[in-house]
Amino acid sequence: MEDVTTLDPETAFLVSNKRTGNEWELFKENVRPMKRGRNVNVLNEALKSQTDNHLKKSLIEERRRLIAAIDEYKGEDPLQPWLECIKWVQESFPTGGDCSGLVVIYEQCVRTFWHSDQYKDDLRYLKVWLEYAENCADAEVIYSFLHANGIGQEHSSYYISYALHMESKNKMKSANEIFNLGIERKAQPLEKLEAAFRKFFTRSMRRPKPPIEDETTDGCLPVRSFGTVLATGEARRQGKQKSDVAGKKQKLDRGAVVSIYKDTDASIPSHQPDLLKNDMKIYTLGTRAERNKENTAIPTKWTSTKIPQRPGSRTVAAAASACIEVFVDEECAESERTVKDGKSSLIQLRRVDGADLKKESELLKANPLRNFPQHSLPR
């Protein structure tokens, strides 16, 4: 019998009698692509959770364990457990979405180290910021924040991502300035930045330029049929002649006297005076009393009417009013709170789950810097 290891992958799968391994073919349209690619075996195991509720619960428990490991880390590189957690979530939740919690983890990670000088020039930390920007509605806010706080300014990845984002918004001038700023600062690797700039320059030259409209010369251009060619001197001569004729015609119109038409035919009877006599009420507003006839109701005293009440109702209301608590919006309170320690954010991240996780992800996508202190935001 031929050895299974020498067979092609499809035949080896059929011979092994495995019940799993084709999840990729069933859910591949829902898998979010990644730049570094995906491991097919890990991907198939992760896609089982689409139909297996027990496996889905185990993934959520594993995510909580990794988040707890971040809090318990005592080493010299506190960013490393965050990166391991992000990588695991990307591979274990290939469909992405708000339920994966990836956007919340991105935000918690970048907010934990944004004021740390240890990671301002760390490429790993910058990549987390760039991945976070890709999941937000408007990434320009994040790039402005990185520029204002001096994060990742020595890496070409920042300038390339920022410029490509501005190019996608059709802001070609800003994209060109960002590329020039990165080249001027000699961001590393410089060869990668220069190659991206050359490609951008080629794309910008191929774009159709918008037509330049000159409103001052539109009225002086001669009217001609399709296919005729006029020289520059002839066009100016015809435009000058046309303007002279229009000026003379305007002067003649100013001096002309307009005659008023008068009907001198006395055979046609006029009924206008009779109409004014008979229907004079139509053309008059009437007195003030007639105009305010809707407001002629006589006011009465409302205190004469009493509403029957049950005995003891006032005492109950007074007791209930004493227990009323002042409402505090948690979202506003969290946005104004300055996070000095990463442990409080980790506790919050552990508690967020299900519908709350989805809601928090949507809020972060709309406003990615909503939980940052006000003094750190770009102005």
Explained architecture:
Residues 66-225 form the BUB1 N-terminal domain. This is Mad3/BUB1 homology region 1. InterPro entries: Bub1/Mad3, Mad3/Bub1_I. One of its GO terms (biological process) is meiotic sister chromatid cohesion, centromeric. The chain has helices spanning 9-16, 23-27, 40-47, 53-72, 79-92, 102-113, 123-134, 140-149, 156-168, 172-184, 190-206, 215-218, 232-255, 272-278, 288-291, 313-321, 330-336, 342-351, 355-366. Among the domains are: 23-97, Serine Threonine Protein Phosphatase 5, Tetratricopeptide repeat (Alpha Horseshoe); 117-207 and 281-291, Serine Threonine Protein Phosphatase 5, Tetratricopeptide repeat, CATH 1.25.40.430. Helices cover 55% and strands 0% of the residues. The chain contains 19 helices and no strands. The chain is mainly alpha-helical and 379 residues long.
Secondary structure layout:
Elements lengths: L8 H8 L6 H5 L12 H8 L5 H20 L6 H14 L9 H12 L9 H12 L5 H10 L6 H13 L3 H13 L5 H17 L8 H4 L13 H24 L16 H7 L9 H4 L21 H9 L8 H7 L5 H10 L3 H12 L13
Helix pairs in contact: 4-5, 4-18, 5-6, 6-7, 6-18, 6-19, 9-10, 9-11, 10-11
Strand content: under 5%
Kindly provide the name of the CATH class of the domain at 117-207 and 281-291: Mainly Alpha
Radius of gyration: 38 Å
Query: Biggest β-sheet: count, sense, barrel?
Result: none
- DSSP helix fraction: 55-70%
Report the span from N to C terminus. 73 Å
Number of DSSP strand runs: 0
Arithmetic mean of pLDDT = 75
Could you list the spans in which at least 5 consecutive residues all have pLDDT below 50?
213-220, 338-345
SS-derived structural category = mainly alpha
Q: How does the overall form come out from the CA principal axes?
A: extended
User: Can you tell me the CATH topology of the domain at 117-207 and 281-291?
Assistant: Serine Threonine Protein Phosphatase 5, Tetratricopeptide repeat
| Helix and strand pattern | HHHHHHHHHHHHHHHHHHH
Count of DSSP H/I helices: 19
CATH architecture of the domain at 117-207 and 281-291: Alpha Horseshoe
